[in-house]
């Protein structure tokens, strides 16, 4: 798949490092939002460790998070994306649902749009069709403000599958290149632990829908519920989950813990031959 000027073989798994330039993200909120040099040092470390993608987000999507206005999000992400593109040989992903942020981020070099709303915001599909970079469509029930208020499904795997295929159909009809669409089941976004476990168990089914799959479970509450560990102590279980996802067919694993996850992906690649 081509991401701007770079092309990557997604037949084996790659690592996406997380860079939140927000004051309120659940894991690293505030660490990089006010200091671009600290953000670039973080990126330097992730690139050296082997990240193929850096996912830059300027609006927290943790449960209960408030919306950020367009101007503020642009001010957070654009300077960082520009500097990353200048200094590093890595694909930059912009983690946003706002059409203008998508457009401006691609203009300064972002090679992937990562949208937790699956291009459902007004104008988002049209922008994605016009910028000619891949897009990741994620499943989320509700919005970050209310998604964990008693989420319920008759069959979570079937409903996530149907949603992703329906959004792909809408996007392709609007002019988005079908070969540039990535799916994300949305672990932790409007789902209980049981829903998340069911999705992980049946991830191979979702990896056979015709689009590469991105999985992001790093440090999430599902891992804390399973292990009883706080956010800072979820490296081992997060690496295990990433390994299972990759063995199940995931093409991209999104993580805060790049070094350990890259090692795990090397192991998966070795097993796959």
Tally of domains: 1
Tell how many strands the DSSP assignment holds: 10
Major β-sheet annotation: 8 strands, parallel
CATH class: Alpha Beta
Q: What shape does the CA trace take?
A: globular
Give the low-confidence spans. none
What proportion strand?
5-15%
Instruction: Give the terminus-to-terminus CA distance.
Output: 21 Å
Helix content: 40-55%
Order of helices and strands: EEEHEHEHEHEHEHHEHHEH
CATH topology descriptor: TIM Barrel
The assigned CATH architecture is Alpha-Beta Barrel
- In which order are the strands of the major sheet placed? 8-7-6-5-4-3-10-9
Mean pLDDT: 92
Helix tally equals: 10
Briefly summarize what is shown:
This protein has helices at residues 36-49, 70-87, 99-107, 124-131, 156-173, 193-201, 203-206, 221-227, 235-247, 258-272; strands at residues 2-3, 6-7, 14-20, 53-57, 91-95, 112-115, 135-138, 181-184, 214-216, 252-255. With 273 residues, it is an alpha/beta fold. It is globular and about 40 Å long.
Describe the protein.
This protein has 10 helices and 10 strands. The protein has a single domain, classed as Dihydropteroate synthase-like (TIM Barrel), CATH 3.20.20. The protein starts with a strand and ends with a helix. The strands form 2 sheets. It has an 8-stranded parallel beta sheet. A two-stranded antiparallel sheet has the order 1-2. 42% of the residues lie in helices and 15% in strands. Helix 2 (70-87) packs parallel to helix 3 (99-107). The protein has helices spanning 36-49, 70-87, 99-107, 124-131, 156-173, 193-201, 203-206, 221-227, 235-247, 258-272; strands spanning 2-3, 6-7, 14-20, 53-57, 91-95, 112-115, 135-138, 181-184, 214-216, 252-255. The protein is α/β, with parallel strands linked by helices.
